Amino acid sequence: MQRRSRFLALSVVFVVLLGLLMGTPVYAETLMEKVKEFDLKNGMKFLVVERHEAPVVFCAIVFDVGSANERNNITGISHLLEHMMFKGTEMMGTKNYKKEIPYIEKTDELGERTIELRKAMDEWRYEKFRAFANQVIAGFSDEEKEAVGANKYEQNRLMAEKIRAMSALPDSLTSVEYLIEDRGVNYLEMFVEHEIAWGEISKLLDEQRQYIISEELWEYYMNNGSRFLNAGTSNDFTVYFVYLPANRLELWMTMESDRMDTPIFREFWSERDVVMEERRLSENDPDDVLRESFYSVAFTASPYKWPVLGWMSDLLTVDREELVDYHRIHYAPNNAVAVVVGDIDVGKVKKMAKKYFGPIPAQEPPPPVETREPEQQGERRVVVEHTANPRLMIGFHKPTFPHPDAVTTLLVNNILSEGRTSRLYKSIYEEQELTARPVRVYTGPGDRYDNLLVISAMPQQPHTLEEVEAAILDELEKLKTEPVTDRELQRIKNQIDAMQIRQLGSNLGIAFTIAMGQLYLGDYKGLFELYDRVKAVTKEDVMRYAEEYFMPKNRTVGYRVKVEEEEDEEGGGVDEEAAAREVIMKYVQSLSQDEQMQIYQKFQQLRSPEEQKAFGMELYERAKAAGFVKEKDEKKEEKQ
After folding, report:
1. Domain assignment of residue 601, yes or no
2. What is the model's pLDDT at position 631?
3. Of 49, 59, 102, 425, which is most buried with the most CB atoms under 10 A?
4. Which of 307, 287, 244, 305 is nearest to 388 (CA)?
5. Among the three residues 208, 240, 269, which one is the final residue of a domain in this structure?
6. Last residue of a domain, one of 291, 322, 356
7. Are residues 175 and 311 in the same domain?
């Protein structure tokens, strides 16, 4: 539950990011006057805003590290580190840390050995042996199964014993050349050693847990009135945040400085399995499969070409030592920005910050991401086959801030897809009825480095991917030749304006606006200058933008084509669920920050999949009542 709620709540961050780089003139000036900043001697920056409307405070720490800061062999380590940051410290999450040390050292030794063995075997051998071992385990007698129970150590020990005692191995192994033995190396015995080592790791972790206080950090926060305790990793940053009663600010200072300074990555090897399971789920999600394939083709040099979850082969080889080193480099105080917004006093915040965060030593700055994506020289296409319904992605390379065309992107995005009067909504979805859901337009996968303007659509039967693609490209061509009207342009600017008013009306909205301004622009004050740039964008700018970026050679197209399977009913259900989630998210994004907060807070409190599903259905009904499901969608639901 903890992991799922973290990822759901992170969507609030991305809602804020949709338009974080502008603000209304009056409100922006007022906010800029209210933001007080100070730096500690170790380089950690604090941005503080006093708001005395309610006795609460929103606190966040944004670390300038995401998947874009990774490299080959350690992709996914930023996300893995986020998981491990909830495992406690020398002070927290333990009854006796010194007694844990031998267990940590021994499991690390065994874990390193499993990595060596699996590399030596090669994956093709490991997969063959794994399937064989599963058959051996399935063949345990009832007495053996009862004796083993859920004890992985005993299970693997017995499985190894049976394999070693076999007088003859099955044809499934012996018929494969070089599988069992090659050049004097017994790879089956290597696999057995690997499984015994994992059994021993499991046994040691079970013994270590007598000293572990699980979820102590969460319990401390919850028992002190916290709300919205969460974290998330993106391509560009990692963030940890919480709402607290204002008189619990010192608790936050204590807990977060401790996590930054002396985290203990206990239960590393079991938590790594949790992250790998998340990776497996992603590999079975049709939308994730398309996105990952699409971005890996669209980018050839940029680190945006790999997913935040990383590649499975890298997760299989990362160890705790690499994680410790990665934390030391990227979670240093000089690589972090803390944001505190609420019913607090700036002077007291500064005093506490010096006391708790001040003693943490600075580190050498992390190596910057210097690789840039070269200019694309021709259209790229990728096709993914899946049992899910067809989906289309079209992406165009574009610059990000501070390039002036990044501001124009915001208006082009809204012109194409924001609201029922937007062009793709009216033409593709409403008039031609080519898509099952409104066409989405967004930038991604990150916003720190040059990225893509992405258009995503799902054809409505009997229309094809080719039809939808052609219709979307026709609308993009119109932007080159038919000027946006003054009224349309002003409406879009007003929409951006209104969104900022909503976002800057809550502690959360203010906190993430100034934090992301600091992260993306190098100075939060820079975001207040961008409103004038938005206001200055003309219809000629929009036409020039379309002409320059919406070119075939700058385009990447991804198709997910549907392949039939014997029991196809399940395949269709995946897309229905995805479509429902999309409707819910659009509905939630339309709400005020306070209403969003209430929804995410309620989701955090749900303790079972059944409760989560029921709440999701409730939100979907609310979205329907609010008009986020059109009449033709409702009729389609009735037919199903």
Report:
1. no
2. 56
3. 59
4. 287
5. 208
6. 356
7. no
End-to-end CA distance of the chain: 31
> How far is 559 from 293, CA to CA, in rounded Å?
10
In angstroms, the Cα distances linking 475 to 211, 417, 543 are: 62, 11, 12
- Give the chain's domain count: 3
Given this model, what pLDDT does residue 143 score?
Answer: 95
Contact 238, 81 (CB under 8 A): yes
Q: pTM for this one?
A: 0.85
Residue 33 included in any domain = no
**CA angle centred on 301, ends 297 and 302, rounded to 5°:** 90
Between helix 187-208 and helix 97-121 the angle, nearest 10°, is 160
Query: What is the rounded CA–CA span in Å between residue 233 and residue 231?
Result: 7
What backbone phi and psi angles, to 5 degrees, belong to 230?
-165, 175
pLDDT score at 5 = 36
78 within 8 A of 458, measured Cβ to Cβ = no
* Domain identity same for 148 and 83: no
Does residue 620 belong to any structural domain of this protein?
Answer: no
Measuring CA to CA, which residue among 187, 172, 181 is closest to residue 132? 172
Same domain? For 410 and 538 the reply is: yes
Same domain as 406, residue 278 = no
CATH number at residue 219: 3.30.830.10
CA distance 292 to 283: 9
Q: How many Å apart are CA 588 and CA 248, to the nearest integer?
A: 29
pLDDT score for 401: 85
Place of tokens 């800061």: 69
Distance set, CA 162 to CA 143, 166, 380 (Å): 15, 6, 52
Query: Are 242 and 317 spatial neighbours (Cβ–Cβ below 8 Å)?
Result: no
**What is the DSSP code string of 508-521?**
HHHHHHHHHHHHHH
Reported as a single tens digit per residue, the pLDDT across 109-119 is 999 999 999 99
> CA–CA separation, 174 vs 172, rounded Å?
6
CA R_g for the chain: 27
Assess whether 397 and 456 both reside in one domain: yes
Residues 463 and 573 in one domain: yes
536 and 578, same domain (yes or no): yes
The model's pLDDT over 168-215, given as tens digits with 9 standing for 90+, comes to: 999 999 999 999 999 999 999 999 999 999 999 999 999 999 999 998
One domain for residues 277 and 420: no
- Host domain of residue 314: 40-91+213-356
Sign of CA dihedral 280, 562, 393, 384: positive
Considering the domain boundaries, does residue 387 fall inside one? yes
Q: Which residues of the chain have pLDDT under 70?
A: 1-29, 500-503, 565-579, 581-582, 585-586, 589-612, 630-640
> The tokens 């934390």 sit on which residue?
327
- If we measure between CA atoms, which residue out of 569, 489, 503, 572 comes closest to residue 536? 489
The values of phi and psi at residue 380, to 5°, are -120, 145
- One-letter identity of residue 145: K
Token pair belonging to 395: 């992406």
Note the residue count of the chain.
640
Tokens 């740039």, located at residue: 533
